[in-house]
Amino acid sequence: MFKAKILFVGPNESGKTILANFLSDTTENVGGEYKPTQGVRILEFETQPEGSSDSTTCETELWDCSGDFKFESCWPALMKDSSGVVIIFNPDIPSHLKEIETWHSMFISSQGLQDNQCLLIAHHKPGSGLEKGRLPLASHLSRLPLIHSNLEEEPEDVRQAFCRYLGNVVNTMSESREREEMSIIT
Q1: Is residue 97 classed as helix, strand or coil in its secondary structure?
Q2: Where are the alpha helices (DSSP H) in the chain?
């Protein structure tokens, strides 16, 4: 069984905790007033990654990281041994489109992750005008897979897209493990 450590990062108030709770089937803090995450929350659950060559269950750790830069000194420790990074942002807030470049630089470029280990989620809050058009992303970000999430209207689409992403991460982990084993043998 694979164990995947997935970091949820992005600007404050972008919906990281709501998505993490939904994907892990955690019901803590559903709705209610906004409470910023302090540092990190770790949610553990098992899931069946979609499209992974290994048809086993995957033990998943979602690390719901605070978007507050006062925790920046902790981020290198959070990144250690991560299998993938999901950048979550609110496309209705113009500053988020600029901020995700910083998150990409700090969490993806610095670790040398492959594109299939990364995911962008444009999280639409309830009542926002859901526009699934092209977002004005920087060229290095437009290469990454992007999904639009709306938990009120299309919750299972979000879950399926995340399971496909997790399948890509598991395949990358499997290939890496095979290369490592071959290097030991030869």
Answers
A1: helix
A2: 16-23, 75-79, 94-107, 139-142, 155-185
Task: Give the CA-trace dihedral at 166, 7, 131, 35, to 10 degrees.
Answer: 130
pLDDT digits (tens, 9 = 90+) for 44-97: 998 877 765 556 788 999 999 999 999 999 999 999 999 999 999 999 888 998
The residue among 157, 144, 143, 174 whose CA lies nearest residue 52 is: 174
Number of H helices, E strands in the chain: 5, 6
Beta bridge partners of 58: 2, 47
How does pLDDT run across 129-176, given as a tens digit for each residue? 656 666 788 888 989 999 999 888 888 999 999 999 999 998 888 877
SS3 percent helix, strand, coil of the chain, rounded to 5, is 40, 20, 40
What is the reported pTM? 0.88
Name the DSSP letter for residue 62.
E
The separation between the first and the last C-alpha atoms of the chain, rounded to the nearest angstrom, is 25
Sign for the CA dihedral angle at 90, 129, 132, 123 comes to positive
DSSP run (H or E) holding 118: strand 118-123
Residue 4's beta-bridge partner residues?
Answer: 60
DSSP 3-state assignment of 110?
helix
Amino acid at 17: T
